[in-house]
Amino acid sequence: MILKSIKIKNFRSYYGEKEFTFAKGLTLIIGDNGDGKTTFFEALEWLFDTVTDNKSEYNISEKRKSELNVGESDEVNVSLVFDHEGEMELEKKFRFEKTDSNAVLTRDYKFTGYDSTCSERVSRDGKQLLEACFDSVIRKYCMFKGESELNVFDNNTALKTLVDTFSNIRQFEDYVTLTEKFEKDSDAVVTKELRNDKKQAQKVKELEEKRTRNAIDIQNVRQDMRNQEQAISDYSTSIEKLEQNQEACEAYQDIKKRIEKKRADQSRFKAMSTLDYNAQLLDEYWILRSFPNVLMEFQKKISALSREKRKQDKAETERRAIEKGKKELADSLVGGATPLPWYVPDEGTMQEMIDEEICKVCGRPASKGSEAYNFMVNKLHEFLLQTQKKAEKSEEEKPYFSNNFIDELNRLSNQLGGWSQKEIVKLATDISDRLELIQNRKRDLDKATKDLQEAEDEKARLLIQTQGLSEDMLDKGFKDFKGMSERKNRAEIRLTELKHDMEDLEKIKSQIDSEFDAIEPSNGTVKLYQRVHSTLKYIMGSFINAKERNIDEFLTMLEKETNTYFEKLNENDFRGEVRIIKRADGSARIQLYSSNGTLISNPGGAQRTTMYMSVLFAISNITTLKREQDYPLIFDAPTSSFGEFKEEVFYNIIDNIDKQCIIVTKDLLEIDKDTKEKKLNQEKLNQLTCLVYQIYKAPNYSPLDLSTIQTQIIRIK
Amino acid sequence: MSKFLTNSDKILQAVLQDEKLAEYGNFNPDNFETIEDALQSENAIVYAVAKIIYGKSEGKPVKELYNEINNYLKENI
User: Fewer CB in a 10 Å sphere around the end CB: N or C, chain A?
Assistant: First the structure.
């Protein structure tokens, strides 16, 4: 079966009719997230669905639906043309009609096949044609969505299905079960007869007890082996899952550390950039920041005042000296006679003499208006004047500036100057330094806040990318990895011990069986039953051995084919050797070994993917061999764990493998430095000979409106 | 031209290739290519094996097939 072309019409984002033709080798369909890659894959899945008649509204193009008026209709249609001993076509479609502004009715579901192997094109039932050409078992090994689906041995029935489908002999298991039942029934007959044989009854009883114990032991060990194998498988799956997300785990740890550091920085810078200005102003005297200027002005003013005071003081002293000189001159007497002191007689005596008009100094009358009377009046007048002068004189002797305010201010000015002033000038530098430091910390705080936000955004993006994994799982997974590997190792050691135990128990069983066979019955008929039983036991053993050989041969063939592809897909790289290991429960697991026999228990993502893909290529080859038909392999985004280099090598190799392979992927896209948009990496594409399509969303879509989304396709080469 | 072998033929060949069985039954496995060949055989082991495969492939009830094989072996070994 070789796919030739597919038309997809009005299927989800595939608005209108879009057609892809396929190469016989590799066809690449390249598109970014949301461009319609998975929709392409799901259109094929819908076409190949033979279980349900799915005409779900979900599959209708929203854009087409939104264009229809009420009462109008259109169809969803996917049709595939392929070669299978002649040209065939499968077409699945249904109509949809707008019944309301928000409702559509789907109807007329049809799945039709067209066979053109004869001279004319014959219409057939779609399901029948599909099953005849591309049955569900084959399809299971041809279509894979994502990397996680690539491991076909991820369930316990996979080996049986594969062997039944692709080995030389099918349904061997059923024959083995049948012969085991025959042997058991025959054994029961013999044992029953021997039990009735009186001579042998005791021996039979003992052997039966031994056999029962042995059977129980075997059952227990087998169960234990299954448990250990299951544990190993579970641990491997978990480890694999952890490893698949190892990069995400590591990236998460890195982001987590950054977030923690940035948070610590943020709180440190916040503390350092916060200042209690009140405390600083009062406790640390920041309030004196402008003091030097004020002091200078104060000192200037005080100095001026002081100068003015001295000047005025001096002028006053001079004035007083002049006044004193003048007075002394005025007070000097004629003839140089010495006058009586002004206070003799005193004021009272003088007043008494005036009142009595008698000079009691000389004893002569001094009537009013007389010279003597006037003399006394003058003398009293002088006395009063002198008294007044005396009072005035004491006043005159007071300093001109009675208070020392200016001197005090001057002293204060001197005190504040000098050392204190220097200290306060230094305060300005301290404040400036401190404020600069705070400014710098504020800048650091801004940067730390910005970095923290970036780290938080990065974490959010990472969590979106690792859908299905919670933050806790990413965190815990990283820590669990070591413990899980250790538990897996312990389970492996225990399994080896159990295998040895099982070998010993099998030997005991064999010995018990021999002892049973050696019992000589008294009755000839029982002897015959014994021979029949022995024969059936041989037959059963040969069926079991043949079945095991068949599986081994199939696995050897599968391993050989797998390693051929594995070698190709890992050219110029360490690859090891793929082995498919059978387990006690009849299942199998793909494992990678170094050529020296060491198990590579945790291969890298790309190595694991190429390992699984090699198995798929090998199965496909075996299918071709067995069915004498080739079948395509269709992958949706199988290489997400690949690095850029590995991706390039991978496509170059797949390009040269002689097998039809359709891969939808976002590989081979790169960021355009100018537009910052994704574009095809032409350099890498030029190295490929395969057919390449690019799919993309038609421009001018609204990220919020599904009805604006439509996938466009371009054939690149 | 090689004969077309059915799944039953392939099972028969694989089972008869077992050395212990061949030794026990004293037969040459190469002499039996198909179920038809084996059902013609006078060797009781070869015949019994062929009968089991044929009976199962024909959908014969297990009990009936067991009795048939058991009786055959009782008479022929």
Answer: C
Residues of B with CB under 8 A from a CB of A: 7, 10-11, 14-18, 20-21, 24-25, 44-45, 48-49, 52-53, 56, 62, 65-66, 69-70, 73-74, 77
Distance (Å) of CA A272 to CA A105, A268, A275, A434: 68, 6, 8, 10
* A546·B14 Cβ contact <8 A: yes
Question: Cβ contact (<8 Å) for A546 and B17?
Answer: yes
C-alpha distance from B72 to closest chain A C-alpha (Å): 9
Classify A631 as helix, strand or coil.
coil
Domain count, chain B: 1
Q: Say if B18 falls within a structural domain.
A: yes
Of A175, A186, A546, the CB nearest to B56: A175
**8 A C-beta contact, residue A491 and residue A233:** no
Contacts with A523 from chain B: Cβ below 8 Å: none
pLDDT tens-place string over residues A600-615: 876 777 778 888 888 8
Residues of B in contact with A185 (CB under 8 A): 66
pLDDT for residue A640 is more than 90: no
Closest residue on chain A to B54 (Cα) = A175
CB contact under 8 A, A539 and B48: yes
Least confident among A145-149, A206-210, A576-580, A613-617 = A145-149
CA distances from A567 to A25, A611, A613 (A): 19, 10, 12
Question: Can you tell me the mean pLDDT for A263-281?
Answer: 87
Measured between CA atoms, how close is A206 to chain B, in angstroms?
27
What chain A residue is nearest to B57 in terms of C-alpha separation?
A175
**Mean pLDDT computed over A303-321:** 89
For chain A, list the domains and their CATH numbers.
Answer: 2-134+631-715 (3.40.50.300), 163-245+469-503+537-621 (no CATH)
Residue A477, pLDDT score: 66
| Domain residue limits at B53 | 7-76
- Please give the Cα distance from A662 to A655 (Å, whole number): 11
pLDDT tops 50 at residue B1: no
Q: Is A539–B15 a contact, with Cβ atoms under 8 angstroms apart?
A: yes
Residues of chain B with Cβ-Cβ distance to A542 below 8 Å are 15-16, 18, 20-21, 49
Confidence class for position A479, pLDDT limits 50, 70, 90: low
Q: From CA A237, how far away is CA A601, in angstroms rounded?
A: 11
Asked, for residue B31, whether it belongs to a domain, the answer is yes
Q: For the ranges A70-79, A332-341, A607-616, A679-688, which has the lowest average pLDDT?
A: A332-341
Q: Does residue B16 lie in a domain region?
A: yes
Host H or E run for residue A559: helix A524-569
With CB atoms and an 8 Å threshold, state whether B14 touches A169. Answer: yes
Domain annotation covers residue B48 = yes
Whether A712 and A701 have beta carbons less than 8 Å apart is answered as no
